[in-house]
Design brief:
Layout lengths: L1 H13 L3 E5 L3 E6 L2 E9 L2 H11 L2 H10 L1 E8 L2 E10 L2 E9 L24 E6 L6 H15 L3 E6 L12 E6 L7 H8 L6 E4 L5 H12 L3 E6 L4 H10 L3 H14 E12 L4 E10 L2 H8 L6 H7 L8 H9 L8 H5 L10 E2 L10 E2 L11 E4 L5 E4 L5 H15 L1
Parallel strand pairs: 7-11, 7-12, 8-9, 8-10, 10-11
Antiparallel strand pairs: 1-2, 1-6, 2-3, 4-5, 5-6, 12-13, 14-15, 16-17
Helix pairs in contact: 1-13, 5-6, 6-8, 7-8, 8-9
């Protein structure tokens, strides 16, 4: 655990977005989309087994044994981490995504300001699409927090896992994690309509039944925000329709047409002149013309509608690059959004033993404060001191020295 917390602290300082740990191999980082390794830091397969036992709950360990992989999230030095633990030829491996403790705003994420208009919607379907690792979850979190700041609403999220913890502001936010607070997305979507929601957030649309229930929720007068793996708006609509039998697809198209508000496709592009990646979007709005194309099954014409829809706030990626990215003065570097910071939510994490007999009170960890030499609590509950300017090896040496001193 000391070695793990030292590496995370160094990764935050260096502005890495991802960390990969696997047995017998140098640790691997991703910075600005580029992979690099640190030969001086390695784990043996046995050390990773010990680390995983400390990081995972008994339920997560059972899932790992059953499924050979599991997802979880936790906080280290005030930085929210999303982890996937999976089995490889080297034994267990960890893929770690670093998330900010404070939810970035749409402006700080270098996104188009029109996304703030989603916060004004009272009903309908909003889809955020793109490949894994393009920042969809962070963009959705920024939109949710925009709603949270701007109006009174009951927001219920269904996530796998919970990445950003929200503090209720004008809105009342309740978060449910797959496998921890709800057994399946299907069960969560059936429950949520009885929970008086205004806004429903679905972490990812994968299964046909989840898609059907999501469309039903949007059709029943709720604002539903969801993510979907798709490369463009046409692909997103086809993915929804083709998840159902042919005889049901016309009904699904009509549901999509009646509920669709936005489809946002997000990619990340590295800019040599500024030295980091920025999001590039394609935006489809649910205009009457777009809805008509979907109803009439003229989905291949969607791209043309985007090209012609400038006056209605639509963007192709080419126009987005030219009209927004090309004219924007100044970009916020990712290091400002992902630096060590106190998590916005300090709610106590609690699992009722009435739901899970193995669960109970979980003491929240004290997050990191400002950068520089500081004292902090690691995931193991020990107090650690580290120097923000130290190398990975120096950080590890400092923490090991601190542990020996305590002994």
């Amino acid at each position: 655990m000391r070695k793990f917390t030292a590496v995370i602290a160094a990764a935050v300082r260096e502005g890495f977005s991802d960390v990969h740990i696997t047995g017998g191999h140098p640790i691997v980082f991703r910075k600005n989309g580029r992979i690099q390794s640190e030969d001086a830091v390695r784990w043996t397969p046995q050390e990773i087994d010990v680390l995983v036992r400390k990081l995972l709950t008994p339920a997560q360990l059972r899932e790992l044994a059953r499924e050979w992989s599991t997802d979880l999230s936790l906080s280290v030095y005030g930085v929210r981490l999303r982890l996937n633990v999976f089995s490889t030829t080297r034994g267990l491996s960890l893929a770690i995504r670093l998330l900010p403790g404070v939810i970035p705003t749409i402006e700080k994420l270098n996104l188009h300001p029109s996304l703030q208009q989603i916060a004004d919607l009272k009903a309908g379907l909003v889809l955020f699409c793109g490949a894994t690792g393009t920042g969809k979850s962070t963009t959705i979190a920024a939109v949710i927090d925009e709603i949270n700041r701007s109006r009174a609403a009951h927001i219920v999220t269904l996530e796998d896992p919970i990445e950003y913890r929200f503090l209720s502001k004008k809105s009342f936010i309740e978060q449910r994690e797959l496998g921890t607070h709800v057994p399946t997305f299907e069960k969560g979507l059936l429950d949520v309509l009885r929970e008086d929601p205004d806004v429903i957030v679905v972490g990812e649309l994968r299964e046909p039944e989840v898609m059907r229930l999501t469309l039903n929720a949007a059709e029943s007068g709720h604002l539903v925000i969801a993510s979907l793996h798709a490369t463009n708006a046409e692909d997103a609509i086809y993915r929804l329709c083709n998840s159902f039998p042919i005889e049901a697809q016309e009904e699904i198209r009509f549901q999509i047409a009646s509920t669709l508000q936005w489809i946002v496709i997000q990619h990340l592009m590295f800019r040599e002149d500024i030295g980091f990646r920025i999001p590039v979007l394609s935006i489809l709005r649910g205009s009457q013309g777009v809805k008509g194309l979907i109803r009439e099954n003229k989905i291949p014409q969607i791209e043309s509608a985007i090209q012609m829809g400038k006056a209605e706030g639509m963007f192709s990626m080419e126009r987005y690059l030219r009209d927004f990215i090309g004219t924007k003065k100044g970009f916020v570097p990712p290091s400002e959004n992902f630096r060590p910071s106190t998590e916005i939510s300090q709610d106590v994490i609690y699992m009722s033993p009435l739901v899970n007999p193995e669960a109970g009170f979980v003491k929240p960890r004290k997050p990191a404060t400002a950068p520089g030499p500081q004292t902090d609590y690691g995931p193991d509950g020990h107090v650690h001191s580290f120097d923000e300017k130290a190398t990975v090896d120096e950080l590890i040496a400092q923490i090991e020295k601190s542990a020996k001193f305590k002994e």
